[in-house]
Design brief:
By secondary structure, the protein is of the alpha/beta class. It has three domains: 5-100 and 199-219, D-Maltodextrin-Binding Protein, domain 2 (3-Layer(aba) Sandwich), CATH 3.40.190; 105-185, Periplasmic binding protein-like II (D-Maltodextrin-Binding Protein, domain 2), CATH 3.40.190.10; 234-310, Porphobilinogen deaminase, C-terminal domain (Double Stranded RNA Binding Domain). It has helices at residues 13-30, 42-45, 63-70, 129-138, 151-159, 170-175, 209-214, 221-237, 282-310, and strands at 5-9, 34-38, 76-80, 92-96, 105-109, 123-126, 143-146, 165-169, 184-185, 200-205, 245-252, 255-263, 270-278. The radius of gyration is 19 Å and the shape is globular.
Length: 316
């Protein structure tokens, strides 16, 4: 590969951990110098508004980085895969998805309590509509409140007493060396993870054949298959930040099992399903499960969410 390579990343401590992780693998594997360029995204600039209200687009954390790629100011980018939209901009591709970290969600409470031990009315913060609605289904008596900011910022707000507990991705806690802060780890059945949660995505220009060939050392076949199924599920359902859907796939002995859920905005209804098949059929499994959930009632939930998004703010 050519050297040096310019790697684009957000500037949060977790994003920089991820960028340096990829940098170290590439430098060891290819005798190449990698330089990290920090790029501030819209999602980094707007920190006082819930994600679901900022346009409802996953591109909030990727748009400026992808523009830098297309303009050839950087050579590759590292993202949390869950931040990437289901469809990438023309000219860009996923060059590699490394082995996935733990995809589960974790509860971090101020006093070491599990979810079942929190008192009624306890304030639980989350940055995710998906997590918030699943929390409301598990404990409808809690006060689920919006929480923005990088992972370290969210933990500081918890420690300052602004919340009784927060929910965050276990992968981020592990990568930052803070896994001991978790007071409960939810199973993927209790709280279905976000599409691609725990996985990193290496994005590059589709015409950069030399670089794409050099990314093979980063690829993990099982993670790529699992996340391909999840993202196919997302594409078929057309989900963004305003659509509370989730899916998680696991690969075992070349068989893939995918579980998915779509939840209504009032948390009153959740349509769930599971599908499985050969690992090589990952995309078809994702599409098939999405179709099954649409037939089982998810279509009505998605239509109601679309209508709610079209209503003017403050209307009944």
């Amino acid at each position: 590969m050519r050297s040096p390579l310019i790697l684009g990343s957000r500037g949060s401590p977790l994003a920089l951990w991820q960028a340096n992780f990829v940098k170290s693998i590439l430098e060891r594997a290819g005798s190449v110098e990698v330089r990290i360029e920090i790029i501030r995204t819209t999602g980094d600039r707007i920190t006082d508004v819930p994600l679901a209200q900022v346009g409802g687009s996953k591109a909030l954390f990727t748009k400026e980085i992808e523009e830098a790629l297309l303009e050839r100011r950087i050579d590759l980018a590292v993202h949390s895969l869950k931040d990437l939209p289901a469809e990438l901009p023309a000219g860009l591709t996923l060059g590699a998805i490394p082995a996935r970290e733990d995809a589960r969600d974790a509860l971090i409470s101020r006093h070491g309590q599990k979810l079942s031990d929190l008192p009624a009315g306890a304030r639980v913060g989350t940055s995710s509509l998906r997590r918030g609605l699943q929390l409301r289904r598990l404990r409808p008596d809690l006060s689920v409140e919006p929480l923005r900011g990088n992972l370290d910022t969210r933990l500081r707000k918890l420690d300052a007493g602004q919340y009784d507990a927060i929910v965050a991705a276990l992968a981020g806690l592990k990568r930052m060396g803070w896994a001991d802060r978790a007071t409960q780890v939810f199973s993927v059945e209790e709280m279905v993870p976000a599409i691609g949660q725990g996985a990193l995505a290496i994005e590059a220009r589709a015409d950069d054949k030399e670089l794409l060939a050099g990314l093979n050392s980063l690829r993990d076949a099982d993670t790529e298959s699992a996340t391909e199924a999840e993202r196919a599920f997302l594409r078929r359902l057309g989900g963004g930040c305003q659509v509370p859907l989730a899916a998680h796939a696991r690969v075992k002995q070349e068989r893939l099992e995918l579980a998915g859920v779509v939840i209504s905005l009032d948390a009153a209804r959740a349509v769930r399903g599971v599908d499985s098949g050969p690992q090589a059929d990952a995309e078809a499994i994702g599409q098939r499960l999405a179709e099954k959930l649409l037939q089982d009632g998810a279509r009505d939930i998605l239509a109601a969410i679309e209508q709610a998004a079209l209503r003017p703010p403050g209307s009944a």
